[in-house]
Every structure is written in structure tokens, then in C-alpha cells.
Amino acid sequence: MKVKNKIFKGVIITICLCILLPLHASAQSSIQTTPEEMQWWKDAKFGLFIHWGPVSLKGTEIGWSRGQQVSVEEYDNLYKQFNLTEFNAVEWVNVAKAAGMKYVVITSKHHDGFCLWNTKTTSYNILSTPFKRDVIKELSEACKQSGITFCTYYSILDWYQPDYNISSRGGPGYKLPAGQKPDMDRYVTYMKTHLRELITNYGPLGVMWFDGEWEEPWTHDRGLDLYKYIRSLQPGIIINNRVDKGRRGMEGSTESDKDYTGDFDTPEQRVGNYQVNRPWETCMTICRQWAWKPDDTMKSLKECINILVSTVGGGGNLLLNVGPMPNGKIEQRQVDRLKEIGDWLEKNGESIYGTNGGPIPPQSWGVTTHKGNTLYVHVLSDTGSVIALPELKSSIKKVSLFDGTPVVFETTNMGTVIKLPESNRDPNDTVIVVELDRMP
Ligand code: H79
């Protein structure tokens, strides 16, 4: 009788496990972003990153000048003079549009803790400045009207909130106000209120772009919990890998030793490695600093196009950053540079938007992208008269430039040699269109 009882119990437990385990697994996976949800972002390729806050009054870096070049006392009072008299959200969105960008990501809150929106949680926000207008609201509305997808950057680490327990918040020697003890759970509640405000008051958002995940109080479990929280507030929202702890430094890819969450990798200030099986996005500054710096060194048009095309050819997106000035304007020379990129995309966008990176990995002469049966060969180097493509599984029907000019080529059993046109070369990127008999 006892033995029978044991067997019976065992069977019951097994049945329960068989029912519950798959349920548990599907609850996890149903929250994960699907390829369909990622598609708009993968097709978009190019977005505008905006780093902005009271620190622009000093012209120092938003990410690491508090308690360094600018004393904590001075830094935390800059907002009282932050008066963006020339700010016009529609103008910013038009700059992004003219550049051929499809989405905008703005620093709703950077490491310094200042909130660019009307939050109920702290008076350290845009409504307490002389400007007294909600930047996030105006920008989100301007984006929606223009068909640009509005997204927000949010720093998990926060130097301003005593509840976030880090040593670096106010530079060397910084001490918490007397009687205050950090409390990470309380800080997470504060953060979740922010994120709910951002999503419900200004959403739906395209991407929630986290940063500042590297300090010790942030853990893998907290990352997973936050990912699920955001996705429950807005199903379909895309979240970068910095929500969790798996990012490999500035290279930005995701470690595989744990079940790290996040929908795309985030190389910073560099073009990511060739990776076509997992989404990624390079974030890079148009000048050197993230926040505005007077007379900062700006990248040339050739550099910008090279970065964009190399990124897309490697399978990634590009999030190119501007830091607007304290009066609310984006520097004219940056606006002009962005327009030049947009003019280039106007002609060559077919080889960028909606494509996939590769299938030929980056070569000494440039990169490739493809869409349907078409392979786009991007010749980035402006020297040399021929290039060699490795052997393709599909055969070539036609090779030409966008304007229809035929391009001479020869296929051998080693691959295909393409003779580059002598005139019609684009020193920034000569795009050669290769029509194939099937998908490359
Ligand atoms: O918002 C911009 C910068 O202000 C911000 N990220 C971009 C998108 C940024 N904050 N700090 N940093 C960049 C540099 C931080 C580098 C390090 Fe680390 C943090 C070095 C060690 C800890 C990141 C995490 C790289 C290695 C681990």
C-alpha cells in the first residue's frame, strides 16, 4: 500500500511538473521581443541621439564632469539658469528628418539625475528651470507628427539620488547628506515610477535605451525584473542590452554565460563587429563630446558616411549623437553636416534602409548589404580600380550603378572581379548594384 502511495505521489508530481514547467517557460518567452517587433527598428538603420541637460551651460561632459571639472555644488544648481529660449522641438525633428534618420533617442535622465520631463517624483526637473516647459512632451509630440519614432535614454545609475549607493557620484571625498542611508529597493521604486511616467505620458516609445548599468548595486536579477516591467507597461517596446549586466564594455556585445536579457547590443564610440544574427546599434558622437562643447572637433562627411555604411554593412544600426547648446539650438555646422548625410541617403538610401548586413563580411575596400535578390557593394576606399568579391552561391545577372550605368565584371571559379567606373565614383561610397538570380 505504501509503495503504491509513493508511486501515485510520484505520478502526480510528474504530471504537475509537465503542466507547470512549459507554462513557466512560455511566460518568460512571451515577454521577449519577437523578430516582428524588432523589424521597424532593423529597417530604420539610422537614428538621432540627443544628449542634453543643464550641464550644456558649462560645455563639459554630461557623463563624468560632476564633481570633476564642475563642483557638485555648482553642477546641481545649474538648472536654475537653464533657459532654452531658442528651443523648438519641431526644428530638431526636422533636422533628424533631413538627415534621413527614422528615430530619435533623447536623454530623459543621464547619470547626473536631472529629469527633462515633468515628473512628480522630484523637483530636480525641467519644470523647475526658468524655461518651465516639458521638453520630452514637446519632442514626443513633434516626432509623432512627423512620423519619427520617439525613444528615450535613461541612466540606471544616478549620482543625485542618495538611495543609489555608489562611491563615484560626487567625485573624490563626496559624502552623503547626514542621516541618509542608500536604499536600492527604494531607488528601484523611484526609477519604475519614472519609467511608467515616460511610457504612459509620452508613449508609446520605440526604444527604452538604458545606460549606467555597471555599478555594483545593479544586478542581473534587477535587470531581468526591469525588462519584464517595461515590457508589461508597453508590449512591443524594444530595450537595449544595458538593462542587464551582460554587456562587454565599450565593445557592447552581450556575454553568453548567463541568460542575459536585452534586445540589441550597444557598441559605443566604435563601429560594432560584423554580426548578422543578433541586432546591434553603434552609438557615436558627431563631435567628440556627448554633451555640447564649444568648438568641439566635428567629424567630416566622409567619416560620417563611412561610419554609417560600415555599421549597416556589419549588420547594425547607427545612433548618431548631437549635444544641443544651452539655448536649445543644435549648432548650425552640425545641422549642415546632418543634412549632407541626408542628401547622400536621398540618392543611396535604397542600399541602406530595409537591407541586411553582409553577406560578404567587411573587406579592405568596403562592405556589402543586401535586400531580396539584390546585393549592394559599398566601395568605401576611394583608391584602386578593381575589387574582388568572394565566390557567391547565386549567379550574377547584372551589375550597374544606381543611375543605370553598366559596370564591367568578370566571374571566374574564384569569385567575381568588378572593374570600378572611372567617372561617377563617389569618394565617400561608390554603391554598385549587383542583381542576382536568387537571394545572396
Ligand atoms: O551617454 C553616453 C555616455 O555619457 C555614457 N554612455 C554613452 C551612451 C557613458 N557614461 N560613462 N561612460 C560612457 C564611460 C564609462 C566607462 C566605464 Fe565601463 C564604466 C568603464 C568602466 C565602467 C563600461 C562599463 C565600460 C566598461 C564597463
Describe the structure.
The protein has 9 helices and 15 strands. It is an alpha/beta fold and 440 residues long. The strands form 3 sheets. Strands 5-4-3-2-1-7-6 form a 7-stranded parallel beta sheet, sandwiched between helices. Strands 8-9-10-15-12 form a 5-stranded antiparallel beta sheet. It has a 3-stranded antiparallel beta sheet with strand order 11-14-13, with no helix packed on it. Helix 6 (184-202) links the parallel strand 3 (149-155) and strand 4. Helix 4 (89-98) packs across helix 9 (332-348). The N and C termini lie far apart (67 Å). The site of ligand H79 has 9 residues, from loops.
Write the layout of secondary structure elements.
Layout lengths: L1 H30 L3 H10 L1 E5 L21 H4 L13 H10 L4 E7 L25 H12 L2 E7 L28 H19 L4 E5 L8 H14 L4 E2 L41 E5 L15 H13 L3 E6 L9 H17 L7 E2 L8 E6 L2 E6 L6 E5 L5 E5 L8 E4 L2 E5 L10 E7 L4
Parallel strand pairs: 1-2, 1-7, 2-3, 3-4, 4-5, 6-7
Antiparallel strand pairs: 8-9, 9-10, 10-15, 11-14, 12-15, 13-14
Helix pairs in contact: 4-5, 4-9, 6-7
Bound molecules: ligand H79.
